[in-house]
Amino acid sequence: MKDYKKMTIYQIWPRSFKDSNDDGIGDINGIISKLDYLKDLGIDAIWLSPIYESPNDDYGYDVSDYYSINEEYGTMEDFDNLLKEAKKRNIEIIMDLVANHTSTSHKWFKEALNNPNSKYRDFYFFRQGELPNNWLSFFGNSAWVKNNDEYYLATFNTTQADLNWENPEVRKEVYKIMKYYLDKGVYGFRMDVINTIDKKEGLPSKNPHLKGYQFPDDYIIDGDKVSKYLKEMNKEVLSKYDCLALGEAVLVTPESAIQYTNPKNKELNMTFHFDLALLGCGELGKYDFRKGYKFTIKEFKDITSLWQNSMYDNGGYIGNYLSNHDQKRPIERFGDIKKYYKESAKALAIYNFTLYGTPFIYQGEEIGMTNPKLSYKDWKDPECFNSYNAMKKMLHVPSFIAKKIANFVTRDNARTPVHWSKEKYAGFSNVEPWIHLNPNYKEINVEDNLKDEDSILNFYKKCINLRKEYDSLCYGSYTDIQKDYPYIISYMRNYKDESLLIIINLDKKPREFIFDGKYKFKHLLTNYRPRNLVSNMIFQPFEAHVYKITPIT
Ligand code: TEU
Ligand code: CA
């Protein structure tokens, strides 16, 4: 059995990873050319954001054919080759399974539109007549799209039509896709918005007494039947392979995450949660600026503590991440890029790699890539365009402010090309990339990071190795130390007779930390200088340490 609890997983968003044929778009052969780099970094698996055929309205999360590869990225042969080359290096490939919806260019959807008697009508949600309900989509529109005299449900972009999982034939088709790729040798799936596949019976309006579109929330998230479908999927597909089922469970609660991932329920192996990503956002998500994107370190700590304790204590399991293709680069939010750039990048790495759960790295994070300064002319992301309009219409924000907010939060921030070198176009391509390139590639790039002993990249390698060496980081319990202290996060991880102590100052100011208990200690890792563990310590901004400790008896 492969052990996903011991793995470090690296997310590739293919369009911006590496271009091999000079069209300015990342591709599969580009990924193959960087496998040695990834091997050297020490990762065990790659989660590949979607590479299937797609009109790219949502950059691959709108699939038009699950059995072919987007020709901008290569061919099925290239993909098979990637699998082979990855296997050679002991790297697993995890595919993105986008099965809550298909593109409206998918043949099922086209058939459903063209033929009123088609069985594919029941693959989706079509309703005649009036607007069926008041649901707001994730991207800020009505969740219903009008097409002639009928509507179809699209809870993300208007060209991503929701599949009707109630229909057993839909589920069968999804299982078929999964088997096709598992039989090819992929290790598993990251399942896109998998906890939204059950829509509330009868599709009733949400809070009908309120004016305007309403986010359907529990009417589409973590519905009762999600677990039923996952159990069936497990029985029909997952249980037959040594594979990983990772759910992207949007806005999931700890209770639901435990339900999905506790092995006794036979559903998924792990899930992501959204609470850290949404810190400082208003209740409508990242374009809801009404909280000013402000949060405290104490809130950050409380979220950590809630998830760590509830998962470990109840047999649940999560993937930990700070960064992905849906969030701007987090170093600006949780760290300090001006004064403590390297220190904070490394402190956050220590955090992400010492928690209970499998750590994820998003491309470019390992070299400390930052957010570019974007203008509205640089926008590519459909969520950004739609949300910009929604801010103006629903929240009555003037255009110039809406633009500022969108520049600040758009997913485009995390989707600029990876900086491989100082060369023109950052070694990503030999031509102008498809999306804005962050001009700071001359200061922040892989080439320089590899040369510098003290670089963020080399620190990531140390973090990855630490997990390989200390089982307590992979399997151990989690215990908060000084839970209510508002600046420094500290916790212990225990497994068998091994105990690790982690202390991280998450603040931009020096802070004092009082620690009681007498221990013999071994210093394992720091972003400052190794130091003795004593009861009263002043930590510099973002100073972080990992110790192995044994009680003095
Ligand atoms: O993301 C789901 C999701 O919840 C995000 O869209 C999130 O709501 C948004 O970014 C918050 O502002 C997945 C994919 O990761 C994302 O790239 C897709 O756009 C989305 O599903 C639809 O497939
Ligand atoms: Ca290319």
Over all CA atoms, what is the radius of gyration? 23 Å
Task: Estimate the strand proportion.
Answer: 15-25%
In the CATH hierarchy, the third-tier topology of the largest domain is known as TIM Barrel
Which cofactor or ligand species appear?
1-O-alpha-D-glucopyranosyl-D-fructose, calcium ion
Major sheet strand order: 13-12-11-5-2-1-15-14
Number of strands: 22
What is the share of helical residues? 25-40%
* Count of discrete alpha- or pi-helical segments spanning 4 or more residues: 15
- CATH class annotation of the largest domain: Alpha Beta
Give the overall silhouette: globular
* Helix/strand/pairing category: alpha/beta
Low-confidence stretches: none
| CATH superfamily (homologous) name of the largest domain | Glycosidases
- The average pLDDT value, as a whole number, equals 97
**What is the CATH architecture assignment of the largest domain?**
Alpha-Beta Barrel
- Alpha-carbon distance between the termini? 39 Å
Number of domains: 3
Largest beta-sheet details: 8 strands, parallel
Describe it.
The chain is α/β, with parallel strands linked by helices. It folds into three domains: 4-101 and 168-373 and 414-466, TIM Barrel; 375-409, no CATH class; 477-551, Golgi alpha-mannosidase II (Immunoglobulin-like, Sandwich), CATH 2.60.40.1180. Helix content is 28%, strand content 18%. It has 15 helices and 22 strands. The chain has an eight-stranded parallel sheet with strand order 13-12-11-5-2-1-15-14, with helices on one face. The protein has a five-stranded antiparallel sheet with strand order 16-17-18-22-20. Strand 11 (188-191), helix 6 and strand 12 form a beta-alpha-beta unit. Helix 7 (254-261) packs parallel to helix 8 and helix 11 runs antiparallel to helix 12 (399-409). It is globular. The mean pLDDT is 97. 1-O-alpha-D-glucopyranosyl-D-fructose is lined by residues 58, 61, 98, 138, 156, 192-193, 248, 250, 285-286, 325-326, 383.
